[in-house]
């Protein structure tokens, strides 16, 4: 999707407040490509995770992609540049696929990447009245996808424009029901401010644990957030769940689920091809993954799972049905490259939901 020039700054909030808000302090653009293993062998850091890089390394990776891209007969475009970021993926999924009024709070720059982010999110119906324009570059991320669909992220946040804690106001959160956030130690100040204000406005908080590196390296402030009792819903994948309990005798997903459920009303641990487990109060459910399809690209799988799960929550559905819808939407995004679901794959999901007797969004009618 091209970066069309749009009127700046963005309009003030008008009409109905978003039911679900996403806090993504820095707008971000993903460069997603399928690459051979030799490139992954060259770059520092563990595969499958997310490790920040500087602008020079980002440019080096983008240059290296030209000689390492894997040809794909199923996808004529082996590389995509799209609006990204975990929270943005979840919010876009809620609006585009589930018809839930949703918005983003954050900052972008008036550069090519910022304009692309704004155009893509606007096109998908996301409310951007909480997005502020600032001087500087928009954040970028290289998403390297191997032949098996596993993705390795290298975000570049160096000098990127960012929303600050003192720029948040109660008006940003008024009349919304949920705030979606991703744990990041460099955003800790704005995360804490957002939680404080959101709670004053009666808004529920959803937190994603981000990456196993973030949990491993910055576990202490994460535990403070969880133990505060302010997090209503927490999402973790299997690797993040294991890191959360590193050093404990039992580090399996069930133990992590029980730990999270002590502090959060809803706790969810996603298990990739093995589905997910979730807990609310004393209720525990295990839901299998949807189908046996090989993943083209796992980018955004957890983010879109959250879209489906949150759709179920705001519709008042039982825990198991929330998980099943999350499994459907998470399984939808892995059918193509990047964290944005194609119109064809949304239709695939609606058909799957109908077959399984799940509540289908009105948007597909």
Automatic annotation (TrEMBL):
Q: Tell me where in this chain the Carbohydrate kinase PfkB domain is found.
A: 75-339
- Asked whether the keyword S-adenosyl-L-methionine is assigned, the reply is no
Q: Which CDD domains match?
A: adenosine_kinase (cd01168)
Question: Which controlled-vocabulary keywords does the entry list?
Answer: Kinase, Transferase
Q: Name one GO molecular function term.
A: kinase activity
- InterPro entries according to UniProt: Carb_kinase_PfkB-like, PfkB_dom, Ribokinase-like
Pfam families (UniProt xref)? PfkB
Give the record's family classification.
Answer: Belongs to the carbohydrate kinase PfkB family.
Protein name stated in the entry:
Uncharacterized protein LOC104595654 isoform X1
Species of origin: Nelumbo nucifera
Identify the coding gene.
LOC104595654
């Amino acid at each position: 999707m091209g970066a069309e020039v749009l009127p700046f700054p963005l309009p003030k909030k008008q009409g109905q407040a978003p039911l679900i808000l996403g806090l993504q302090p820095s707008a971000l653009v993903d460069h997603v490509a399928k690459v051979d293993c030799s490139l992954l062998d060259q770059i520092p850091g563990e595969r499958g995770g997310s490790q920040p890089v500087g602008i020079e390394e980002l440019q080096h990776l983008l240059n290296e992609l030209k000689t390492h891209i894997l040809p794909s007969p199923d996808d004529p475009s082996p590389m995509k540049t799209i609006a990204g970021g975990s929270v943005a993926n979840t919010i876009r999924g809620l609006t585009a696929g589930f018809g839930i009024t949703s918005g983003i709070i954050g900052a972008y720059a008036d550069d090519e990447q910022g304009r692309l982010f704004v155009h893509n999110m606007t096109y998908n119906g996301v409310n951007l009245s909480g997005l502020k324009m600032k001087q500087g570059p928009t954040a970028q991320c290289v998403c390297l996808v191997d032949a098996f669909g596993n993705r390795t992220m290298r975000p570049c946040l160096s000098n990127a424009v960012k929303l600050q804690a003192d720029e948040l106001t109660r008006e940003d959160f008024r009349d919304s029901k949920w705030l979606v956030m991703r744990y990041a130690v460099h955003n800790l100040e704005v995360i804490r401010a957002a939680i404080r204000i959101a709670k004053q406005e009666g808004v529920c908080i959803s937190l994603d644990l981000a990456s196993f590196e973030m949990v491993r390296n910055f576990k202490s402030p994460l535990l403070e957030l969880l133990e505060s009792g302010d997090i209503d819903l927490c999402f973790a994948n299997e690797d993040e769940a294991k890191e959360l309990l590193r050093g404990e005798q039992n580090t399996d997903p069930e133990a992590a689920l029980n730990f999270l459920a002590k502090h959060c009303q809803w706790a969810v641990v996603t298990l990739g091809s093995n589905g997910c487990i979730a807990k609310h109060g004393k209720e525990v459910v295990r839901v299998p993954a949807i189908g046996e399809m090989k993943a083209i690209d796992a980018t955004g799988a957890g983010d879109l799972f959250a879209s489906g799960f949150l759709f179920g929550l705001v519709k008042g559905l039982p825990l198991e049905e929330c998980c099943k819808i999350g499994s459907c939407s998470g399984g939808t995004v892995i059918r193509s490259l990047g964290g944005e679901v194609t119109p064809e794959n949304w239709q695939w999901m609606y058909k799957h939901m109908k077959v399984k007797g799940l509540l289908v969004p009105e948007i597909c009618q």
